[in-house]
Design brief:
Blueprint (H helix, E strand, L loop, with lengths): L1 H10 L5 E5 L4 H14 L5 E8 L6 H15 L2 E6 L8 H20 L3 E3 L4 H14 L3 H4 L5 E4 L2 E4 L7 H10 L16 H16 L3 H30 E2 L2 E3 H4 L4 H16 L8 H12 L4 E6 L3 E6 L2 E6 L11 E2 L4 E2 L5 E4 L10 E4 L9 E4 L5 E3 L6 E3 H7 L4 H4 L3 E4 L5 E4 L3 E2 L12 E5 L1
Parallel strand pairs: 1-2, 1-4, 2-3, 4-6
Antiparallel strand pairs: 5-6, 7-8, 8-11, 9-10, 10-11, 12-16, 13-14, 14-22, 15-22, 16-19, 17-18, 19-20, 20-21
């Protein structure tokens, strides 16, 4: 604990404000007590930020306990209560709520740092969990003693210490704390690592946490160097938010991967968790493709566009006609939703994914385009025309997708098919005469 105290004394300056995340457990109470020791030597303001998750019956009493301690020590106390959880992933939702709360408190008091009670054992658990689950190079480092999250500067002074050292220090200094017994349940992944893996590692080397800290620092140093190289190459390849494919191929394969990762991080920002390795593979696939123009759907209604020698992302609500003009349907057409419309020689099925036409009933060539205001179609087995937008609504096509839904028309602008949704009166059955078969798949 002495190292943590020395770190804080060297790091913290007079007249600074610190927000301490405190659950009331032995780790965070030790951190709050430690920070209060610094306050006795330096002119600083301490704000204790406590989150009541409301998932255990003891939660309310724990909030009262922390508040009382703060009142006794003349520490500002701020409380956040989570009343309901809107996300099935409890831990992710709770973490987001906590850090959103911390950000508000930092903004409220114009605080300089957020202090969290992550310690050496936590670092071991985090690194091992990410090694097993898979992560990025930076992710494999776990967490650093200092880091930034959005506008928050985060300090983790207890990273040098173990859980046992913290609890021993609490007893020595008569620091009160509460115990969360849910931390003992095997249902949580981290608990299993804590109960079964940590004792084994500590038996091999009681100071194993320091080895993991050294490992973490080396990974972070390597990552910092790589990020500088990636940024340099990224600025050469990405121009006006578009990836120059020719310049992209001149780079090393590792740099190529990192450029794509950085590009997606900048596009998705806080939603980057939606992006997986398969999305990187899809980008490589479309870049390698010999086709000059391609589109590909990505998460959150984003559309990947390959246009000649450039690759870029746009919001999918943009009309596809702004990207590719109305085209003659004489070759297979690859749609943004990864489906294809093409002419086939024969087909045994007869659903809405198939359209059979007689060229004498229509005017060739056939075109593929997207919806326009006032579009109507003579629907098969119905009297009169029906609005295309009504058909899309009835089939639960998302509003952002309606303007980009493919429509097949002839040379006179007569709509002959709404692929996979509705057939027109020009469609022929297998028993009737036809010479054109279109298939959507």
């Amino acid at each position: 604990m002495q190292e943590a105290l020395v770190f804080l004394k060297n790091k913290i300056k007079d007249n600074q404000t610190l927000v301490v995340a405190c659950s009331g457990g032995p780790d965070s109470m030790a951190l709050l007590y430690l920070t209060n020791l610094v306050k006795k030597e330096k002119k600083i303001k301490i704000v204790c930020a406590h989150v009541n998750h409301n998932v255990r019956k003891e939660s309310k009493n724990e909030a009262i306990f922390v508040k009382k301690f703060c009142e006794e020590q003349q520490i500002i106390f701020e409380l956040k209560e989570i009343t309901n959880y809107e996300n099935e992933n409890f831990h992710n939702y709770a973490r987001n709520e906590r850090y959103n709360f911390f950000q508000k408190i930092i903004d409220k008091y114009q605080a300089d740092y957020l202090l969290t009670a992550h310690h050496g054992d936590d670092l071991i658990e985090t690194i091992m969990m990410r090694l097993v689950r898979g992560s990025s190079l930076k992710g494999y480092a776990g967490f650093a003693i200092e880091s930034n999250l959005n506008n928050m500067k985060i300090l983790r002074p207890l990273i040098y210490t173990t859980k046992l050292e913290i609890e021993t220090w609490d007893k020595k200094n008569n620091i009160p704390y509460v115990i969360d017994h849910s931390n003992e349940k095997d249902v949580y992944t981290r608990n299993r690592y804590r109960k079964y893996l940590l004792p084994f590692l500590k038996k091999e080397d009681p100071n194993v946490h320091r080895k993991f800290y050294q490992f973490s620092e080396e990974i972070l140093n390597a990552n910092n160097y790589i990020e500088k190289e990636v940024n340099k190459n990224y600025n050469q390849v990405v121009i006006d938010n578009k990836i120059n494919i020719k310049l992209f191929w001149e780079k090393d394969i590792f740099i190529q991967q990192e450029i794509l990762k950085k590009y997606l991080i900048e596009w998705y920002s806080k939603d980057i968790d939606l992006i997986q390795k398969k999305h990187i593979s899809l980008l490589f696939k479309i870049i390698k493709s010999k086709k000059k123009n391609e589109t590909l759907n990505f998460p959150l209604n984003s559309l990947v566009i390959k246009e000649n020698n450039f690759l870029y992302l746009i919001e999918d609500k943009v009309d596809i006609l702004n990207i590719i003009d109305k085209q003659i349907l004489d070759t297979p057409f690859y749609l943004p939703n990864n489906h294809v419309i093409k002419k086939v020689d024969e087909c045994e099925t007869d659903g809405n994914d198939i359209c059979r036409l007689n060229f004498k009933d229509i005017t060739l060539p056939l075109y593929i385009r997207t919806r326009q205001n006032g579009d109507k179609m003579l629907v098969k087995n119905m009297n009169g025309h029906k609005n295309i937008n009504d058909i899309l609504m009835e089939n639960n096509i998302h509003p952002l997708k309606r303007d980009t839904y493919p429509i097949i028309e002839d040379a006179k602008g007569t709509i002959v098919w709404l692929p996979n949704l509705k057939k027109s009166q020009f469609d022929k059955t297998k028993s009737e005469k036809y010479d054109i078969i279109l298939r959507y798949y």
